[in-house]
Amino acid sequence: MDLVSARIERALDEQRERLLAISPDLAPFDEYARDLLSGGKRFRALFCYWGWQSVAGRSGSFDPLAEGSRQTTAEAIVTVAAALEVFHAAALVHDDIMDRSDTRRGRPAVHRRFEALHRDSGFTGDRAQYGTNSALLLGDLLLSLSDAVFDEGLALLDPARARIVRQEFHAMRLDVTAGQYLDVHEETAWPAIDESEHLLRAQRVIVFKSAKYSVEAPLVIGALVAGASESQLEGLRSFGLPLGVAYQLRDDMLGVFGDPEVTGKPAGDDLREGKRTVLIASARKTLPPGPRQLLDELLGDPDLDEGQVQMLRATLTDSGAVAAVERSIDRHVQRAKAALDAAPLTPSAREQLASLADTVIRRVA
Questions:
Q1: Is 226 found in the same domain as 147?
Q2: Which PROSITE patterns match (predicted)?
């Protein structure tokens, strides 16, 4: 992913020059954006590249300039993949505000960093409001930057293909925005919703908040850059959607049971945030009234102590929900791999995508 990282750095350099020409007070926008974009696993860029590779049929290593590939096409896929990572960073900034998260990737979340800037600089006014407002603007700036980088990649394609790729990018952004709202909505609307709908609604959040945006859309965008056929796109979607669901199910498990030293987030963070995930919905279906009521009362309490987190973890495990989610992850991965085997894609790409599937599901952060 060195080529993608270099392209992101170039975009940030260009943005920094313009920001500092306006005012040196904008330096934190550059610093915090760089820190956020220097980390991460680059999964979206990887899926975008291998979506392209699955159609373009280049060599197995990450070298899109190899085997006589036209430089313009190579630059296009690297630039588009970089834009997806910048968009992801923007989404993380906004997501951490909505979730009231304190940390991201082992360091303070962006809104907390702006709060610290306010405190350490002796500014006047509400520190938390300053942090939230500033982080919202940085997230918006990263959204704008992702558009600019994406458009640079599209400019290297013929107009008809560029238009199709842009439509998929817009669809991805609509889906993830809708999914984010539904996630927020479920945290507060659940008492007014029929019990029989809770699990179905949690599954819908997974599809639109994460599955499409994390795996399916990057794959399809990369394939469209390469000029994929309908059958190739269908194969990638059939692989990407179930894998994306499994990806988010694993993320939900890590949000409750993950090791803070590895995840970079406090233990049981999703419990304090009140996430109404598939894990929670599955547990509520099987828990007796007493434990279910206790779960509802504690879920979403930002002041949960370690003992309460451990108790909720035990409740979820004893309910059978943890085992049920693990089985669901396995089923979705197997469905994804079966679709991949049947898809008309290049052999090297199928091999790499299968390996990526294992990586994203076995991850511990």
A1: no
A2: POLYPRENYL_SYNTHASE_1, POLYPRENYL_SYNTHASE_2
Q: Which of 26, 38, 35 is nearest to 137 (CA)?
A: 26
The C-alpha atoms of residue 253 and residue 268 are separated, in whole angstroms, by 10
Question: What was the pLDDT predicted at 67?
Answer: 46
Could you tell me if 95 and 176 lie in one domain? no
pLDDT given at position 66: 46
Q: Name the pTM for this structure.
A: 0.93
Quick one: angle between helices 347-362 and 321-342, nearest 10?
170
- Supply 226's token pair: 């390469």
Domain tally, the chain: 2
Structure tokens at 350: 């199928």
Give the strand pairing for 107-108 and 103-104. Answer: antiparallel
Q: How far apart are alpha carbons 41 and 218 in whole angstroms?
A: 14
Q: Give per-residue burial for 313-343: e unless 16+ CB within 10 Å, then b.
A: bebbeebebbebbeebbeebbebbbebbeeb
Query: 3-class SS at 107?
Result: strand
How far apart (Å, rounded) are the C-alpha atoms in residues 246 and 207? 10
Q: Among 262, 263, 271, which Cα is nearest to 306's?
A: 271
Q: What would you report as the CA-atom Rg of the chain, rounded to the nearest whole angstrom? A: 21
pLDDT band at 71 (very low <50, low <70, confident <90, very high): low
Is 51 inside a domain boundary?
no
Per-residue pLDDT tens digits for 300-350? 999 999 999 999 999 999 999 999 999 999 999 999 999 999 999 999 999
Q: What is the DSSP letter of 264?
A: S
Average pLDDT of the residues in 165-183: 97
Residue 104 sits at φ, ψ, to 5 deg, of -150, 120
φ/ψ (deg, to 5) at 117: -60, -45
Do 241 and 313 fall into the same domain? yes
Tally the C-alpha atoms within 13 A of residue 256's C-alpha that lie toward its C-beta: 27
Mean predicted confidence (pLDDT) in 253-274: 87
- Which DSSP symbol is given to 108? E
